Amino acid sequence: MAVLFLLFLLTVSVVSADEDGFIGVNIGTALSDMPSPTQVVALLKAQNIRHVRLYDADRALLLALANTGIRVTVSVPNDQILGIGQSNATAANWVARNVIAHVPATNITAIAIGSEILTTIPNAAPVLVSALKFIHSALVASNLDGQIKVSTPHSSSIILDSFPPSQAFFNRSWDPVMVPLLKFLQSTGSYFMLNAYPYYDYMQSNGVIPLDYALFRPLPPDKEAVDANTLLHYTNVFDAIVDAAYFAMSYLNFTNVPIFVTESGWPSKGDSSEPDATLENANTYNSNLIRHVLNNTGTPKHPKIAVSTYIYELYNEDLRPGALSEKNWGLFDADGMPVYTLHLTGAGTVLANDTTNQTFCVAKEGADPKMLQAALDWACGPGKVDCSYLLQGQPCYEPDNVVAHSTYAFNAYFQKMAKSPGTCDFKGHGSCIFPGSAGRNGTLPNTTSLAPSSNSTTSGCHSVYIYGAGSFTTSVIIGVLLMSVFFL
């Protein structure tokens, strides 16, 4: 099983939390092969992800999320802030169309008004609080204000002099916005949304911040950062960023607005100027972040006050502009394959994409080769599986037989469809195998790898079962369970 997820002076800290911390994911859509809403929801269910944040209020995705129980934060896109912030009627129409039309079937629990407005479109800052108030008024009119909170995500860059955290304060040029904003959050019982990226703090520190400190790796006591004003010890950058925001709010005399981290993560790939954007570092950061949040350890300023966090992000977004790293923050590729296998062990419920909780689709033993070929042709054609790895001279060409090739294609389709029921049937010629399950003779099928490793080289397909970038040898899979599932 996989496991699984932030703070003026200690004596005046009165922030409280009503529930344990949770881990959610952001769902961006800048993909050239964006999965369908049904496929997205199937992946969320397979990974037991119960909290998501959308960057808009996509109708198709909200409909697909209906009756799943998944808690959804919808967003007013930045380009709509000016209109909504200047018109109560426009705000009411937005809520009617994007919220009221979907609840209660879709469990919308928050509305994020834009994203990093103060630093990305400062010309909209004067109407930001009005936008929050108008959206909230529409919720009140529909008796939804009790279940749906309204806030706006901020970049941590609006916090100045952020270390030590006790010296932190918001950029004072934003006080005319920040003070009424915090009053609104306080009066409505909402939370301060913060985008916290230790990766960027590390990159911009020019070596001052140790990599281990950014990645939540254990530090010896003499290496921990100490706030000389409070004597609080900081073992990781994430907690320091969150506490800086808490102290900045305290500076403005707000001590009871909790923080939700709406974005945090680490890129798994970068160009030559970003040598620490690697699979292993992304894996380490997100695995440790999940563990940190779900342990409800809070931060040094507010221990035991959980900091619920949304990981940025669900999918790698190949269409995002900018540096290579901008395209590689995802936990999954568009086909539903994990970009890496999270280091999550023990008991848990969220993000079960490790090697102890996997199912694969293989060609059924004794299947008619002609029928297998027909199913293979379908998977590589209408099924839209990338079968280029099966071409002569490519990594998965050998062994060159229909059983091995169809196993590859069947499993690629099965994983692409997030293991949805019926997607490993192929007219009765596909079967599921489960790690740790025994087959008829307690043996493994004699097939090629089930998918190419995302970090494989020209040396060819490995003779192991591979799930995304994480792999495990055949010794881990001790048997095969064949099962027929209904017609595709």
From TrEMBL:
Q: What keywords does the record list, in alphabetical order?
A: Cell membrane, Disulfide bond, Glycoprotein, Glycosidase, GPI-anchor, Hydrolase, Lipoprotein, Membrane, Plant defense, Signal, Transmembrane, Transmembrane helix
Matching PROSITE patterns, A to Z? GLYCOSYL_HYDROL_F17
Per its record, the protein catalyses: Hydrolysis of (1->3)-beta-D-glucosidic linkages in (1->3)-beta-D-glucans
Gene Ontology molecular function: any one: glucan endo-1,3-beta-D-glucosidase activity
Q: Which residues form the signal peptide?
A: 1-17
Q: How does it sit in the membrane?
A: Lipid-anchor; GPI-anchor
Give the subcellular location: Cell membrane
Top enzyme class: hydrolase
Does the UniProt entry include the keyword Cell membrane?
yes
Residues crossing the lipid bilayer are: 464-487
Cellular component (GO) terms are:
plasma membrane; plasmodesma; side of membrane
List the GO biological process terms: carbohydrate metabolic process; defense response
Entry EC number(s): 3.2.1.39
Q: Name one Pfam family in it.
A: X8
Question: Its principal location?
Answer: membrane
* Span of domain X8: 359-463
By sequence similarity, the record places it as follows: Belongs to the glycosyl hydrolase 17 family.
**What name is this protein filed under?**
glucan endo-1,3-beta-D-glucosidase
